[in-house]
Amino acid sequence: MAWSNQSVVTEFILRGLSSSLELQIFYFLFFSVVYAATVLGNLLIVVTIASEPHLHSPMYFLLGNLSFIDMSLASFATPKMIADFLSEHKVISFEGCMTQIFFLHLLGGAEIVLLISMAFDRYVAICKPLRYLTIMSRRMCVGLVILSWIVGIFHALSQLAFTVNLPFCGPNEVDSFFCDLPLVIKLACVDTYILGVFMVSTSGMIALVCFILLVISYTIILVIVRQHSSGGSSKVLSTCSAHFTVVTLFFGPCIFIYVWPFTNFPIDKVLSVFYTIFTPLLNPVIYTLRNKDVKYSMRKLSINEIGIVKKT
Q: Where is the G-protein coupled receptors family 1 profile domain positioned along the sequence (predicted)?
């Protein structure tokens, strides 16, 4: 896809989170710590799952891929935002802006499919336990992960195909810390109502429908667990509640922003920070705090590393 377009605008100005110098210094320190914790937390989960044989199961395979996507989602715009806190001119090129839009929708689309896959995994594990390993075979798991990336790529290209050739000939200030599609298309010099409707149908409504389906699926799972209550039901409830918490944290802000792209709300910027920075941070926290197997494996991994360091 060519980057050339009909616009006079070659760069966009990002307004960021605040114009206050004191707040920008605070944000620089705060988000630097949050970003480091996000990357290290998700990386630790990926390394732990890859290195511990007893975590080589379908659920943890999908969880490891979710952590990789979260790590990437936190990295597509956050490093530039942190650097911009120390810069007077918060500028991004037209190509850089389109790249941010592409990766946001690529990773968002991939995560939606992966969260649906994780719900399917829990449904099979609870409702069809005897056929679990047959249905959730390694081939199936790899196929679900590949499908998530294919869907993400097609979704990102569908959003970018109409945006990249829009004429931008006047205003170039984006009221956010990154190029979010609803904010960027409003700067075009043509009527973007049809594009906005397309965005609602391909991003907002898809996110809303997927969220409703996931709520229904987890409700069915919880009802089945209660009907067949046993000694392992508390572990199942803990796992499902962790999955549902992550689903809510991810879909909530996305639905709010993309179902109403024609209207700007003061809370939009807060929600953008939440689903691009805080949700990827909270995911490893939620899964490690609620999952004894992951916590045990992390402790084992850290003890082994400390032992290796002492020997050297």
A: 41-287
Please give the pLDDT value at position 56. Answer: 85
Give 6-11 contacts, CB < 8 A, sequence gap 24+: 6/165, 6/166, 6/167, 7/94, 7/166, 7/167, 7/168, 7/169, 7/189, 8/168, 8/169, 9/94, 9/168, 9/169, 9/170, 9/172, 9/187, 10/93, 10/94, 11/91, 11/92, 11/93, 11/94, 11/172
Strands 11-14 and 173-174: parallel
Counting Cβ atoms within 10 Å, is residue 216 exposed (0-12), middle (13-18) or buried (19+)?
exposed
Other C-beta atoms within 10 Å of 310: how many?
7
Give the mean pLDDT of the chain. Answer: 83
7-11, 66-70, 213-217, 230-234, range with greatest mean pLDDT: 66-70
pTM for this prediction: 0.85
End-to-end Cα spacing for the chain: 51
The span from the CA of 146 to the CA of 237, in Å, is 28
Which amino acid is present at 287? Y
260: which residues sit within 8 A by CB, 6+ positions away? 204
Backbone angles phi, psi at 13, to 5 degrees: -100, 125
Q: Quick one: which of 92, 130, 4, 216 has its CA closest to 208?
A: 216
Report helix, strand and coil shares of the chain as percent, to nearest 5.
Answer: 75, 5, 20
